[in-house]
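A reminder before we start the practical. When you read a complex entry, don't treat the lines as separate problems. The point of joint prediction is that each chain is placed relative to the others, so the output describes one connected object in space. Small molecules and nucleic acid strands, if listed, are placed in the same frame. In the example below there are two entries. Take a minute to note the order of the lines before looking further.
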Amino acid sequence: MDADEIDIDHLARLAALRLDGDERSGVERDLQRIIALVDEMQAVDTEGVDPLAHPLDATQRLRADEATELIDRERYQAGAPEARDGLYLVPSVLSDP
Amino acid sequence: MNTGWEAVIGLEIHVQLATQSKIFSAAANRFGAPPNSLACPVDLGLPGVLPVLNEAAVRMAVKFGLAIGAEVCEHSSFDRKNYFYPDLPKGYQISQLAAPIVGPGVLEVPLDDGAAIEVRIVRAHLEEDAGKSIHDAYAGQTGVDLNRAGTPLLEVVSAPDLRTPEQASACFRQLHSLVRYLGICDGDLSQGSMRCDANVSVRPQGREALGERTEIKNINSFRFVEKAIRFEIDRQIERLEAGLAVVRETRLYDAAKDETRPMRGKEFSDDYRYFPDPDLLPVVIDEAFIEAVRTELPELPGARRRRFQEELGLSEYDASWLTRNPDTADFFESAARTDGSNAKQVANWVMGELTARLNREDLTIDSTPVTAEALGQLVARIEDETLSSKTAKTVFEALWNGEGEVDAIIDARGLSQMQDAGELTDLIDGIVAKHPQQAEQFRAGRDKLLGFFVGQVMKATGGKANPRRVNELLREALGKSG
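Here is the predicted structure of the whole assembly.
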């Protein structure tokens, strides 16, 4: 991807961010520099190097399948803007078509 | 279906794995609990938590891979699939894009006509389920229940090898059967344990290139898979024949109206910006782990179907029907192996009387009051001619109502067929003597009157005479000159 091909509005929409004028140009500048850095890294010859899924040279430990977690729903929901009947309530997701 | 067109169908099936705990947390994995009573900080996506992979989910995925002859990947890894929706509190779903745990395999799918097709499975990967949104209970608000968040899913992706709605439905059914055999999913479609997405396109018969496709999401029954795809194929053909294009989009099936409709655009974006999840390390499975899982593999539906045909002499149809559900197959097999039983007869009883009765009472075969052993004995008593088909039904009814064992019921109700030929001969002679006119007409060639005499004998014996023997003895008695 070319640094000047960034569709900042599309990215902002996907990230659910509202960027006003100054922020928008600031983020765009940052992204251009990041893309430039990625371009630079992509120029490195990686022929014969295995793809790396994680920077740590370790593998995933597996957890025994036991349901040991105690759920304190009241406590978790105390931090939510709104909860009722045990459900978290959020602004309506479906608006009228 | 419209002629001149061919449909191309691929399925993506989400299988909820029957683990005790969730895929990345130690909260319980169970359906039907009070809202959010199974949602722990990991499932809620609270800051500072870390996912830890459940060993049983990995084991079940490997089991599935081995069952379809797929390559089980010794190295797999997790990625983040990013989108915003309230029932996905982290803002991303942990899934496997780049390196799935199960590679290409093949699913053998038996069709209703006795033939079978091979459907290629492209991959199967592990991921977490999202929570549930409740849209209609609160004015202007959406309720969110995160109990389901973090339920382990195995997403099975087929190649576009299916050509008709019936094949697609059969493929879904076969996968359902397989995961039940493997014991990795409870298979309860009504609770969403398996959900099917279908990719559908059409092309002119004989053309190689694929048409534009649509995706129908979240279909949860075998019948709806068939109906949704049939609707979608017809809709696409209608558009193309009218000179319109098929638009690539995601659609939902509305069972009440039997149609598919486009999902509203804002609900959904197909730009997921996947990237490797830094919270999870690569998963490495060694040969020993895979081999240990291999030893746990049960006899699979295809093998069992063939064995029922070869060892027990069942037809392709019966064998296929009986092996679909492992509980049914176990029940049938143990009844068929009861001393003196007969496999074909047992098959008829299981597929007929027993299934009808279970359906009527909304029961499944693992909660039937008539045990496999009892049904086997019942069939054995038909085989040795103690019971007629009519009295056998009475015994079945008594078994269903818990009246005891087969022989005890036969004795208590005096249902044993009259075995004493002498007694039966006397009775028949008496009846023939009582109806000289009918006997005369029979001898004169009115064959139909045999039925009249059989009826008289059955009435006199309360249905306990063996019909075949009654026929023989009657012909003998009527053959004598009057």
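Discuss with your neighbour: Residues 6 and 32 of chain A are 8 Å apart (CA to CA). What might explain this?
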